[in-house]
């Protein structure tokens, strides 16, 4: 009985509440009608602000996955409902002034505070008279704006860093500059704010890390931080050069971008390493702020950060200037390269001992030698120096600095010219496909189809890529033998990485490579079998004449498995160990020649050894390469002549 | 199929390098010494119980640990602004290694930034002054970042010619 009464009372209260709900203000009705009449929900700018994308089977879906980014219940898939809910939301009563609480969930802001870019755009389109809207206080938004003080925008590309899997392809983010001409105020760039979109990693488990990253189980979040964090992280700690692209955005677009980044900051997205990643996010934000730009359209199936930069250049006039912020490694090489032979001798001595005497050097010469030595310590011992413990490297650096400070010469700014040939946007397309014809001593005539999803190998055109690094994702080769009318998958590696380092006393880094996937065995152990393979190798490399000549020697270990393989004691798998040596010659940007010889000992398998000799020559013409490949293995010798196209 | 291949790809690439990154991180985390936990800076930013220079490897590159430390709407650190003495403190904390080197050389980007942050007139004079006082600012490699900060501020204050107006 009491329960029934309570129910009735509840219902009565609810209906009273509904009746007391004020009718929409006339001004809101007016705006809604105008928005409908003008089909604003179909406008490109609106689609971009909410990040709607066409679905495969019709309709649209917006990208944000966190709650609170949509004001309409079905806003994720209904642009019109979301637009009307947004307009309605702007009329929500302003909460009584309360101190800003950082703990408040972002979604609990007043819609005018949470969606400043939507407000700005709709105001412009509908000529909204802001004085007729409630005027909530937005202290957190105001603080954000005051902190970044954006007057111009720069897109930053951090170059490839092979020693971290997630950044092997580079990273892109935005810098909000406090000055209208960022290049004119280099010293303050450190205090500008960087804004990026990145996965928030919540696991230390390597398997989970890989799987979650690829299947969108990490949250992608927008973050901001003083630019100096990025400079210290990339340029010093990881020795990655930064490429900075100043963008020609109007002041209104810059303002809208800041407002929109704030909107994005209140939600999260499912993050996919290869598709919906940092580059996709950054370009999407730029497009939303400046609907005149076409950026995402220029991205391929897999989004590599370098493609982001190329997409900028597809919009003529968008990039105002390109700057280069050298990594500590690049700085050291530049300083060492500018030394006289006497100064270089002093540098060698100082690297041996910070107290080494440098007789006969004038103060400016001694300063130059010490400056190079300091960069060397920072470069070679970056990780150690970042560690809080006191280490021998920190001690060496301390002694070098103490000595340097007593030489009363102020160092000149190090000017490193922008190497045109290294600019990422000039690099070849990462997808490569080619065909070739040739002959094999065993199978007769051959035709080969060659494909690679990404990114670069040691014989590709060098422009825009690190001189001594190869990272290939999904290189595939299919082989047709007309005599047997047989089509084989010859090779399909999942990944193939080769990181060469010019070994010197100044740069004592080793050369390594790793790869795995499927490859064909061409020895008596299993002639012509496709086998699962994994390879790991380490050794040393040396470059001469710049990077025109590079020689390397490695010790490799390989594991191969195939059903018919006569491997370890007759099992279907075998181990291979042995040395490899290679040589690469480059003639400028136009031609490259790569040769490698490898011998392998096969313990407890038949046969007991195998070998592999290969020679590849390529001639690069704009977007195509002509190539010749000769390979010799125990069961056959083959030669191919082919052409490849970079897309 | 594509997803499986892709998954294998990243896993393979991860395993060798990730382990190393984790061990470096572990070495940095929780240790004290040259990187201290000064007021509003690194130590107090929301890296949970992680302290020290790991902050520089922030949660901003895919693949490093973090929990939205630098989120936009949720606010950044305790140091909301970037001006005045607090900003100098945060700046020195993160840029310690680069600053030490620049001070020993009497010039460089971090000195230019300090000049601007503290409202001094001329970065050349600031550089020369700091260089002369290197041994007072960095008497040893193990000096705490707090002490470095105090010494930098004192040096700039004491040299009236620099007219660093933000230092009062």
Structure description:
Chain A: Residues 1-19 form the signal peptide. Chain A: Keywords: Signal. Chain A: This is DUF4105 domain-containing protein. The complex is a heterodimer of chains A (647) and B (168). Chain A is α+β, with helices and mostly antiparallel strands and 647 residues long. Helices cover 29% and strands 31% of the residues of chain A. In chain A, the strands form 3 sheets. A 12-stranded antiparallel beta barrel of chain A has the order 10-11-12-13-14-15-16-17-18-19-20-21. Chain B starts with a helix and ends in a 10-residue tail after the last helix. In chain B, helix 2 (84-105) runs antiparallel to helix 3, helix 2 crosses helix 4 (123-132) and helix 3 (109-117) packs across helix 4 (123-132). Chain B is mainly α and 168 residues long. Chain B has helices at 2-28, 84-105, 109-117, 123-132, 134-137, 145-158. The interface between A and B is large, with 98 and 88 residues.
